[in-house]
Amino acid sequence: MKILLIRLVSYATMLLFLISITFSCRESLIDNDQVLNIGSHLELFIDDYIIDNLGGKAETRLHHPVIKELAIIHDEPWEGNGSGYHSIFKDGNIYRMYYKAWQIKTDKTRTLTPSIFCCYAESDDGIHWRKPELGLYDFQGSKANNIVFISGMMGGVDADGGHPAVFKDENPNVSADALYKAILRANKTRGLFAFKSPDGIHWTPMSQEPIITDGAFDSQNLAFWDNELGEYRAYWRYFDEGTEASPYQGIRGIRTAKSKDFINWYDQADLIYIDSQKEQLYTNQIKPYYRAPHLLIGFPTRYIDRGWSESMETLPERQHREWRSSISERYGSALTEGLLMTSRDGITFNRWDEAFLRPGIERVGTWNYGQQYIAWSVVETKSALEGAPKELSLYAVENYWTGTSSDLRRYTLRIDGFVSVNAPMSGGELLTKPLTFKGNKLFLNFSSSAAGGIQVEIQDKNGKPLPGFTLEDSPPLFGDSIERIVTWKDGKDLSSLEGKTVRLRFLIKDADLFSFQFKREKQ
Fold first, then answer.
1. In a domain, 5, yes or no
2. Which structural domain, as residue segments, surrounds residue 346?
3. In 10 A of CB 45, how many CB atoms?
4. CA-CA-CA-CA torsion sign (209, 270, 225, 284)
5. Total tally of structural domains belonging to the chain
6. Nearest to 456 by CA among 521, 523, 418, 502
7. pTM over 0.70
8. Residue 412: how many CB atoms within 10 A of its CB?
9. Could you say which DSSP state residue 319 is in?
10. Are 357 and 316 contacting, i.e. CB atoms less than 8 angstroms apart?
11. CB 506: neighbour CB atoms within 10 A?
12. pLDDT tens for residues 219-263?
């Protein structure tokens, strides 16, 4: 009996040992799988991809664009109060803008102008815009206008010029005659047409048939070249839980697909959101972030109908709002605002439930259905502050369907300034997941108070501080900089750690950390 008991204890001890080895190996495998190879990518805190833990009072904080001047007023006879769906991008030394030009007549029939157009504007700085006379299409007997697409027959296809999405193709193998591309909604059938242009002004269809047909499309539907993917991506409007017989019933949503040639599309999928409530989304405004193209950033428009209430009645232009409701109740009681979302695979998105661009202080032309549709997409512009670094400009619609013209207003945000990791003076910590990098210097985009600051510790994969890179070796960084090199007592060089698995620990006091990046600089 005693021998049997000894054997049972021995077997149990061996089993526990084997189990411990198994779990140890499994944990090691998991750790290895979770090591992020970020290379020299710029990493933002717009999602939790890089974050392992936030301690103390550290938290991720959504930042909001700062309101600026009116960028452009759509007051030409061929434009009007329904103008919108802007595409904006930097092209060499100029900024290009394409947009819907549409007049909603102010009568109870909600009738339109004889046609709906896509127009073109340009700028030398992204702030002051001009409408060149292109001489392409006739409007009321004259071609002295900036119309680039009409609604009707163009090159043998019947397209809707009022739902444009235009971009410069960054495909390295793009042909000279298709350097610029556009997506237009089909007029009489459900679908999207593809157009091409050598100069962004003169356009021809790429196919006589719609390239995508499964959707609702009553919004700005777009596509672009994704250099990280090495293919084109498209994002368009559909109705979740709609049917073929009733495609405009259900929840307004977003659908995507990929293509190698811009004509044939595959891997169609509906967007998935992490921990976000189901909401009505109009536009999507998705595009690779130009400083970190592995990140797709979108600015969808949230549509919400809160019905009539005392609060609704106190909003601006009540009489006009009530008139709009006489046509359809939601035209007067619905509201729109801009959201922020991001993805690394193009399908699964982290979407902030809080508004990114709120309707703002109450004034004429705001807090109505059609306001704060954000243009596609952000561009870099000069700051109004002498000596300050460049900043991001984004643009959004106001005065939509409230008079005879609508406006596009400019907003600004610091570069990478969508979301930060913030902590008060009492302090907080950010610990990254295990990662490997390429480079010999670490740069931060951060802002602190005069009394606050950020310290950086580099640890091994198990969380042990590395000699020479501990918090004690890290003098606090304070200031407000888009790109500041991190230093330790022994210097700035990280060559000895390149390619090794490390963690970064940030100690933050009364400061915001927006992004970081490892880069190689000559010694």
1. no
2. 66-414
3. 23
4. positive
5. 2
6. 502
7. yes
8. 18
9. H
10. no
11. 26
12. 999 999 999 999 999 999 988 765 454 444 567 889 999 999 999
